[in-house]
């Protein structure tokens, strides 16, 4: 009997993490996994238990618990928060203990994001610099003050010290409606961050909106393809850990194409026309007051005018084959979902999530 692989998955009740959990529960070796899933609510824990995971009630701020859980893990996936240094320090304390006990460095696969290489273009241009995840010197040159970088450097530091094998997954716009059992059960968000936010703003103002002229571009990947990268990486490490780069050489950008915000706005506008909400699909620039109102701050609202460009070259070397590229073709479903949510809410669009992003990203 092979011994169990102890997997600790933060974010199993999330949009991407819920999709990854499904992949792990359907993995050909799933009978050899114990998948521990920290969650905050007993109700969510019960759903996760029924699906085959081993839930633990723990918030990210319960550092002793997190350390304890991490100290028993062979592989840790973090898909809960890209900006939480204390949570990462607690994970790393646990990993240190595990390493001291076994002599083997546990695997830490942390989710960061391409927000780390954005330019604040106000929608006026597309970035010229194209980042590549196989260009180590370029990745090292990202400033320490960049978004998410504080946690990324801590994660890489643990790898450099040798007590962890660390890997960073860095998606751009993640899109598409998630359809894993946790999403169908209603315990996880079915939708992402950027496009749903723009869809909600468009529904509220009855017209699609863009920041500036919408010329800024971002790389994108479908949520199902994003989840696949974690599994490709996990499988490659399980097969031959020596053949897979880690630390600075374990950076995985996630993209399968790029899109301009204007085109996203236009597709949202067309969905609004199809719903009979407006007659004109053409997006118009948001006023600053609108950005502040919908996203709680101008800084977060202006995110839709930022730009970055990156190539996911490393993931393709470990067999990642993304299946989706048609981001604009998914937007109608995204808008219809947000419209249905608003209808259930008496026609009101709820911006609680968007207004919380400043805190989540460490801006507030
Ligand atoms: N979606 C994107 O476009 C995108 C792009 C780049 C990077 N990322 C990064 O990828 C990660 C996952 O994103 P997502 O869109 O899947 O997020 P999500 O749907 O909001 O899921 C977040 C997960 O983290 C858990 N969590 C959050 N705060 C917690 C706390 N204080 N204690 C315990 N659990 C907590 C949530 O649990 P509850 O169920 O209890 O809320 C949920 O399971 C994030 O770090 C995000 O920054 C996302």
CATH H level, superfamily name of the largest domain: NAD(P)-binding Rossmann-like Domain
Bound molecules: NADP nicotinamide-adenine-dinucleotide phosphate
Uncertain segments: none
Indicate the proportion of strand residues: 15-25%
Principal-axis shape: globular
Count every beta strand, where a strand is a DSSP E run of 2 or more residues. Answer: 14
What's the helix count? Answer: 15
The radius of gyration is 20 Å
> Which CATH-level-2 architecture of the largest domain?
3-Layer(aba) Sandwich
Strand order across the largest sheet: 3-2-1-4-5-7-11
SSE order in H/E notation?
EHEHEHEHEEHHEEHHEEHEEHEHHEHHH
What count of domains describes the coordinates? 2
- CATH fold-level topology of the largest domain: Rossmann fold
Helix/strand/pairing category:
alpha/beta
Helix share, percent = 40-55%
N→C terminal distance: 50 Å
Largest sheet: 7 strands, parallel
What does this entry look like structurally?
The protein is of the alpha/beta class and 364 residues long. It has 2 domains: 5-118 and 128-175 and 221-254, Rossmann fold (3-Layer(aba) Sandwich), CATH 3.40.50; 191-218 and 259-308 and 324-360, no CATH class. Helices cover 41% and strands 16% of the residues. It has 15 helices and 14 strands. The protein has helices spanning 15-25, 42-51, 63-70, 85-102, 136-140, 149-161, 181-184, 194-205, 223-239, 261-274, 288-295, 298-301, 314-317, 331-344, 352-360; strands at 5-10, 33-39, 54-57, 75-78, 107-111, 131-132, 165-171, 173-175, 209-210, 217-222, 251-254, 258-260, 284-285, 310-311. The strands form 4 sheets. A 7-stranded parallel sheet has the order 3-2-1-4-5-7-11, with helices on both faces. The longest helix has 18 residues, at 85-102. It is globular, with a radius of gyration of 20 Å. Bound molecules: NADP nicotinamide-adenine-dinucleotide phosphate (NAP). The site of NADP nicotinamide-adenine-dinucleotide phosphate has 25 residues, from α1 and β8.
